[in-house]
Amino acid sequence: MSIYFQNGFERVFGTYPLKGEELAHAVAAAVGVGYRAFDTAQMYGNEADLGTALARLKLPREELCIATKVHPDNFPKERFIASVRQSLEDLRLDYADILFLHWPPVGGDIRPSLELLEEAHRLGLARNIAVSNYTVAMMREAKKLVAAPIASNQVEFHPLLDQSKLLAGAAETGISLSAYCSVARGKVFDYPLFKELGEAYGRLPGQIVLRWILQMGVAVNTMSTKPANIHANFGVMDFTLSSIDMARITELTKTNYRIVTQDLVKWAPAWD
Asked: What top-level branch of life does the organism fall under (predicted)?
């Protein structure tokens, strides 16, 4: 089972692309409704802002689950650990709860960055290690290369993209999935099914989407600056979609609408 689900952190507040006071206000609103898991990355350029925002709120450290990600530019051995230490300094933390590799390396040799990720774990800089945007083949190889458990593979996951191969890979390897682009950057709302189901369950369309993801066994990562949306995104644990409605939503994955393409991101692998 996912570390997110094991520890009650299956609803993660994402921070991209927020910075400064906008981020601080959003984080305060998120904490107010109950969020305790927060996601950032070196690539986002907001680790220090998140650290400042959380320090203002003076939450007990043991209540928090803070995840950050190592930028591929910092995968070389001479930069990796130093970059993680800088991230922790910016976040005002002694350790990250989950430390991700943000992308597979260009060229496809995942061993060096995985070994450095495991070194960060051995040094106590991260309680858990994870990867992002790995294919099934990469998940299998990572499982063989790394002795420490790999907590998650964070990937694009929403009802308009067929990720059945990755879900099968997660079941095979024990590396669970966590989602980004959970509502396909708003594209899901072009589909009447979510409004229909929202009316049937007395929920907002976005809550139906997030509930589907959770029932697929995938942690959700959402971001908003609007208090009402932050509250709605968090409030998805007190209802359950029927198996029939889950299947109706899953049928939409045949759309295969992918946001993060190889044209958009140079580190993107050949997707499954």
From this structure: Bacteria
Annotated active-site positions, please? 44
Torsion on CA atoms 65, 22, 44, 209, rounded to nearest 10? 60
pTM beyond 0.85? yes
Distance CA 213, CA 155 (A): 12
* Helix (H/G/I), strand (E/B), else coil: 110: coil
Ramachandran assignment for 78, one of left (phi > 0), alpha (psi -120 to 50 degrees), beta (any other) = alpha
Q: What mean pLDDT do residues 192-204 have?
A: 98
The span from the CA of 145 to the CA of 141, in Å, is 6
Better-scored residue on pLDDT, 13 or 264: 13
Q: Cis peptide leading into 227, omega within 30 of 0?
A: no
- Average of per-residue pLDDT across 196-221: 98
